[in-house]
Design a protein that fits this description.
The complex is a heterodimer of chains A (312) and B (246).
Chain A (H helix, E strand, L loop, with lengths): L1 H10 E12 L2 E7 L2 E3 L3 E5 L6 H8 L7 E6 L2 E2 L4 H6 L1 E4 L11 H12 L4 H9 L15 H13 L5 E5 L7 H18 L2 E6 L2 H4 L5 E6 L2 E7 H8 L2 E6 L2 H10 L5 E3 L2 E4 L4 H13 L4 E7 L3 H9 L6
Parallel strand pairs in A: 4-9, 4-10, 7-8, 8-9
Antiparallel strand pairs in A: 1-2, 1-3, 1-5, 5-6, 10-11, 12-14, 12-15, 13-14
Helix pairs in contact in A: 5-6
Chain B lengths: L1 H14 L4 H18 L11 H33 L3 H6 L5 H33 L8 H28 L4 H11 L2 H4 L13 H6 L14 H25 L3
The chains are: A alpha/beta (312), B mainly alpha (246).
The structure holds adenosine-5'-triphosphate and magnesium ion.
Adenosine-5'-triphosphate (ATP) binds next to α2 of chain A.
Chain lengths: 312, 246
C-alpha cells in the first residue's frame, strides 16, 4: 500500500490540492484533488456547469485559482508556468483558427511560437488525417475538420500532456469515433498523458483508463474504469416456483430482497452467499427457473452519481 | 525577449493574406486623390511642398490615422476574441507581456507602413504637379515621423480597450465617435494637446507661421504629452491584460 502510494506520487503528471475557484462568492470548483498518472488517459466527466472547463482553465494558467495548488510534472504551476506549458498541448472548448488562413498557415503561426521544426507540421497533419486539405482556407472546413485541426495544433509541440476539453462536442457519431480512436492511439504511440473532458460517460469509457466525475464543482468519484464497472454491477434476479415463500426465506438470511414482477430481486452479493442461498432454496423444495444478474448500465450508474442519488 | 520575437513573427503571419493591406493603402490613396485634384495654385505662384503637405495630410491625420489606429487594434484582437482564441494563444509557452507588446508592435508597424505610403504619395503628387522647389526633407520627416509617434498613445489606448471588450465593433464605434470632434477641439489650446485622437493631426501639420489653437504649441510639449500618455495607456492595458481571465 505504502509502496504504491509513493510510486503514484512520483509519477503524477497532474496533482491538484484543495483547488478552489470562486466567482462572486460562489464556488465553481471546490476541494478538487486531481491525481493523474503518467501515460494515463483520464476521463474528466460531469454534466453541464459542473466545473470541467473551469478546472482545465486553471490547469493551463488561464485563470487563477482562488486557493489551492496545482502541480504539473511535479512542478508548481505558478512558479514554472513557461516550462510546464512548453510540454502541454491543449484544446479548450471550441478550436480557434484564422479563417482566412489555410490549415498550414494556422499551424505555422503556432509553430513559430513553439519554435519546433517545420517538419512537425506535416507529422501532426498526418496524425489527424488532414493531409491533402492543408492548403485550403480553414473557414471552409467542416466542424470535424476544425476539431481535428485543433488537436493537430495541440500536438504540434510534441506535448507530454494533452488536455482536451470536450473534443467531440458537436461531432456526428463517425466524427466522435474518429477522434476517440485518435486519442486512444496517442499514449501508446507517443507515450503521452491525456486529460479529456466530456459530459457523456459512453464517450469516455472506451478510451479512458481512469475517470473523475465532478458534480457542482466537487469530485464525487475518481477511480479506474474497471472499478466503475464493478460498482455498476447490479442486482440478482431469481425466478422460482413459490416467490413469496422464497423471499421470506431469503430475507431471513439477511439478503434484503424485494418482489418485482413475480421475481425476487436481490442487491449485489458475493458469489459464496449466492451459492449458499440457492442451495438453501433447493433444499427447501423450491424449483429454481432462472438466476439472472441484472447489470445496470454504466450510463445509468453515472447518472445516479451525477444526480447525487449515490454517494461513492 | 526570444518569446517576443516569436510571437511577433506569428502575429505577422496571422495578419498577412488578409484585407488589412487594403486598409494600409486606403488613406494614402485618398490623400493622393485629394492632392491631385485640389486647387492650390494662387495667381501665378508655384505650389510649395508645405502647401501640398498640409492639403494632403489634413484628412489623413485628422480622420484616417486615429480611425486606423483603432481598426488595427480591433483587428489584431479579433481572432482571439472569436472561439477560444485567447485560450489557445495564452496556453502556449508565452508570457502575457510579450503577447501584448507583440500585438502593440504589429499595430505600430502597420501605421508605419501607412505613413511611408503617405510620404510616397506626397512625393508622387508633387512630381506630378511639377513642384520644382527642393524637397524640405527635415520638415517632411518631422511630419511623417511625428504623425506616427503621435499615434502611439491612441494605439495603446485602443489596444487596451480592444483586448478587454470581446466585441469587434464597439471599440471601433467609440473610436470613430471620439475622432469626429477633432476639428472643434483643434481650436482649443488648453485641451487639444491632451486629446489622443487629435495628436496625430497636431504633430503632422507643418510647423509654419500661421498657427492657431492647439497648433500653437511647441513641438517639445507635444512630445512630452505624447510620451507621457503612451506610457500611461500602455501600462494600464498591460496591467489589465496580465490579469485577464481567459
Ligand atoms: N466567468 C465566470 N463568472 C461567473 N461564473 C462562472 C464563470 N465561469 C464559469 N462560471 C460558473 O462556474 C460553473 C462551472 O462552469 P464550467 O464552464 O467550468 O462548467 P463545465 O463543466 O465546463 O460545463 P459544460 O459541460 O457546460 O462545458 C458554472 O456554474 C458557471 O456558471
Ligand atoms: Mg465546459
Amino acid at each position: 500500500m505504502l509502496v504504491t502510494e509513493v510510486k503514484k506520487m512520483t509519477q503524477a503528471v497532474i496533482e491538484t490540492t484543495n483547488l478552489l475557484k470562486e466567482y462572486r462568492g460562489r464556488a465553481a470548483v471546490e476541494h478538487l484533488n486531481l491525481n493523474i498518472g503518467k501515460g494515463e488517459i483520464y476521463g474528466f466527466l460531469g454534466p453541464n456547469g459542473a466545473g470541467k472547463t473551469t478546472t482545465i482553465r486553471m490547469l493551463l494558467g488561464l485563470i487563477k485559482p482562488t486557493s489551492g495548488s496545482i502541480k504539473i510534472f511535479g512542478q508548481d504551476l505558478k512558479r514554472n508556468k513557461l516550462q510546464i506549458l512548453r510540454k502541454v498541448g491543449s484544446l479548450v472548448e471550441s478550436p480557434s483558427y484564422y479563417g482566412h488562413l489555410s490549415a498550414l498557415d494556422n499551424l505555422e503561426a503556432i509553430r513559430r511560437i513553439l519554435n519546433v521544426p517545420k517538419s512537425r507540421i506535416a507529422e501532426v497533419l498526418d496524425i489527424v488525417s488532414l493531409t491533402g486539405e492543408e492548403k485550403r482556407p480553414v473557414k471552409g472546413f467542416s466542424l470535424g475538420m476544425k476539431q481535428r485541426l485543433g488537436i493537430a495544433a495541440a500536438l504540434l509541440g510534441s506535448p507530454e500532456l494533452l488536455i482536451l476539453d470536450e473534443p467531440t462536442n458537436g461531432l456526428d457519431p463517425s466524427g466522435i469515433q474518429e477522434i476517440r480512436s485518435l486519442i486512444k492511439r496517442l499514449p501508446v504511440e507517443e507515450g503521452i498523458t491525456v486529460l479529456v473532458s466530456s459530459h457523456l460517460l459512453s464517450e469516455i469509457e472506451q478510451m479512458a483508463g481512469t475517470v473523475g466525475i465532478i458534480r457542482s464543482g466537487r469530485m464525487v468519484y475518481q477511480d479506474t474504469i474497471a472499478h466503475l464497472q464493478q460498482q455498476a454491477a447490479g442486482d440478482l434476479r431469481l425466478a422460482v416456483s413459490e416467490p413469496e415463500e422464497a423471499l421470506i426465506l431469503a430475507n431471513r438470511r439477511g439478503c434484503g430482497g424485494t418482489l418485482q414482477e413475480g421475481r425476487i430481486t436481490l442487491p449485489r452479493m458475493s458469489d459464496v452467499r449466492v451459492a449458499l442461498l440457492i442451495k438453501e432454496l433447493v433444499e427447501n423444495g423450491h424449483a429454481i427457473y432462472r438466476v439472472e444478474e441484472h447489470r445496470q448500465s454504466l450510463e445509468e450508474f453515472f447518472l445516479q452519481v451525477v444526480e447525487g442519488g449515490q454517494s461513492v | 525577449m526570444g518569446i517576443f520575437w516569436r510571437v511577433l513573427s506569428a502575429e505577422r503571419l496571422k495578419m498577412s493574406k488578409s484585407f488589412v493591406w487594403l486598409l494600409v493603402i486606403g488613406s494614402p490613396a485618398v490623400a493622393m486623390l485629394i492632392g491631385a485634384l485640389a486647387n492650390m495654385e494662387e495667381e501665378g505662384q508655384m505650389i510649395t511642398w508645405e502647401v501640398l503637405l498640409s492639403v494632403m495630410s489634413l484628412f489623413h491625420a485628422m480622420f484616417f490615422l486615429p480611425v486606423l489606429s483603432g481598426v488595427f487594434a480591433a483587428l489584431i484582437c479579433r481572432a482571439e476574441h472569436a472561439d477560444g482564441g485567447w485560450k489557445q494563444l495564452l496556453a502556449l509557452p508565452v508570457t502575457r507581456t510579450s503577447v501584448y507588446l507583440a500585438k502593440y508592435t504589429m499595430i505600430m508597424a502597420l501605421l508605419a507602413a501607412v505613413q511611408l505610403l503617405f510620404f510616397a504619395a506626397v512625393l508622387g503628387v508633387g512630381a506630378l504637379r511639377g513642384v520644382d522647389v527642393p524637397i524640405p526633407w527635415t520638415m517632411f520627416l518631422a511630419s511623417i515621423f511625428g504623425g506616427w509617434l503621435a499615434c502611439m498613445p491612441l494605439a495603446a489606448l485602443q489596444l487596451a480597450i480592444s483586448q478587454s471588450w470581446s466585441s469587434f465593433g464597439a471599440p471601433l464605434a467609440l473610436n470613430v465617435t471620439l475622432t469626429m470632434p477633432n476639428m472643434l477641439i483643434a481650436n482649443s489650446s488648453t485641451y487639444g494637446p491632451y486629446d489622443p485622437w487629435l495628436q496625430p493631426m497636431l504633430a503632422m501639420s507643418p510647423f509654419g507661421e500661421d498657427r492657431f489653437g492647439a497648433f500653437n504649441l511647441p513641438l517639445e510639449s507635444l512630445i512630452t504629452v505624447v510620451l507621457g500618455s503612451l506610457i500611461l495607456f500602455l501600462a494600464v492595458g498591460l496591467f489589465s491584460f496580465r490579469r485577464k481571465a481567459v
